[in-house]
Amino acid sequence: MFTRRHAIRLGLTTGAVGAVGAAGGVFRTLTTGQRAGQPATAPVAASAAETASAAGTASAAGAVEPFSVPLTVPPVLAPYLRTRRADYYRITTRRAAAEILPGTRTDVLTYNGSFTGPTIHARTGRTTVIQQVNELDMPTSVHLHGGNNPVEHDGGMMDTIAPGRRRTYVYENKQPAATLWTHDHAHHMESEHVYRGLSGLYLLREAVEDRLGLPSGKYDIPLVLRDADFDENAAMVYTMDDAENRTTILVNGRPWPYLRVEGRKYRFRLVNSCNLRIFVLALSDGTATQHPVQQIGSDGGLLTAPAETPVLVLSPGERIDFVVDFSKYAPGTRLSLANMLGPGPTELVGQVMRFEVGRPTADRSRVPDTLAALPAPSSLPKPAVERSFDLTMDEPGTGGHQAYINGRTFDPDRVDTHVEWGTSEVWTVTNKSATIPHNFHTHLVQFRILERDGQPPYPAEAGLKDTVLLFPGQTAKLHLTFDSHRGVYPYHCHMIDHSAMGMMAQMKIS
């Protein structure tokens, strides 16, 4: 169970911790000038000035009534060829006009013209081959986030596809079932490219998971979260490192949508595809009543056992799979997925979507007590090396606009960390920024979190991870094993604007 103690250790504000006890009843924001762990100072309700500011900067979005737009599910892409061992796809990166805000059109960057991008269903042990065609006038690079792939198929930041050219990526899928996603990674362009739409789902499945009996088919629903700043003409406004004004919350490309559900169990796959926004989510009926959910998976796949929690904490790049049993609620009940962390006015960023509960239906799905087999932290391989990584960035008001790992900005010609193939290492990562949260993402390898500020991770963080959230002053100790591919891979902050500002480095595994 996620407890008040876990929330405090994650660095959530006093207001957010209070909201854990009154899901949806109290919201507070973490401002750029506030240290994690200090009491929140923002008011529960947005001030008149904040509301006016939001209306002035996002007037087109301000006309959207929350929970008036139905949730849509990203289209599933069918392979154009299937062989005994592989599925073949073709995806074109191009500009398109999408209806995001009702009755308007917004210019976006897309995979196959879809916003949010199309979903690929893959199978563990079965190869996926994707030909990526770049019809933009800018280079792109497609990274399978969470994938274990050779360097030439990793989609590195300097390994780009030129305008008018194409590139084939091969994913052998030699890893457990997990909720993965693809996104652009072309350095100095990735931030704006992802913000404007270049991301898509990659759902990796396997027979072992299929046999568990979890909710499946139409009861297995992805929820891809992102935020945006729209002007009065419904155009997306992009400004580097702008967390405050991206206050329109989108789920699967729809603003504050609703979903009609049957009275039975559903599996939801949360993906935080925002550039900067961290979500602290709770299921709320608008009262102080807690409505815990069962978290069953994280970045790298299923947890060993379900973790009941009243709050889901999700930083950019992270994924969470969770189950809600709507048969517990009377038909007609309305439950919202409420967000308890800013920045931004509560009436905008404090709500994500709504579930409208219908009649009970037959349900043979289940959530078993045991989900996946993972070694206990005490039985992980002994590390050959222990390393430390400090994350910092120029603070607001200093005039600087750079971000650093161990005091250095990214240099594509420099290898920062040399790793011996086949070994395990322990990395201690510390956010030394005074006011700014970061997270830490590794390509190629999934890691285990051994400690958070000297304490064991809470159960929902105990599975396989590739991205870890760090509020100011926090430290996480990670265990990584490098036994799959050799080559040069990046590690970076996945608050993508920060990595574009230099918070990225490279490791060479040889």
Rounded to an integer in angstroms, the radius of gyration calculated over CA atoms is 21 Å
- Strand content of the residues, in percent? 35-45%
In CATH, what is the class of the domain at 4-67 and 214-360? Mainly Beta
What share of the residues lie within helices? Answer: under 10%
Sheet/helix structural class: mainly beta
What do you see in this structure?
This protein has 510 residues and is mainly β. It has a domain at 4-67 and 214-360: Immunoglobulin-like (Sandwich), CATH 2.60.40.420. 9% of the residues lie in helices and 37% in strands. The strands form six sheets. A seven-stranded mixed sheet has the order 12-11-10-14-19-16-17, with no helix packed on it. Strands 1, 2, 3, 5 and 7 form a five-stranded mixed sheet that branches. A hairpin with a 7-residue loop joins strand 2 (86-98) and strand 3. The longest helix is centred in the first third of the chain and has 10 residues, at 48-57. The chain is globular and about 60 Å long.
What is the fold's blueprint, element by element?
Elements: H1 4-9, H2 14-21, H3 48-57, H4 59-62, E1 81-82, E2 86-98, E3 106-111, E4 120-123, E5 127-134, E6 142-145, E7 166-171, E8 178-184, H5 190-195, E9 199-205, H6 207-210, E10 220-228, E11 248-251, E12 254-255, E13 258-263, E14 265-272, E15 279-284, E16 293-298, E17 301-309, E18 312-314, E19 319-325, E20 334-339, H7 346-349, E21 351-360, E22 385-393, E23 403-405, E24 417-419, E25 424-431, E26 438-442, E27 448-452, E28 467-470, E29 475-481, E30 487-492, H8 496-500, E31 504-509
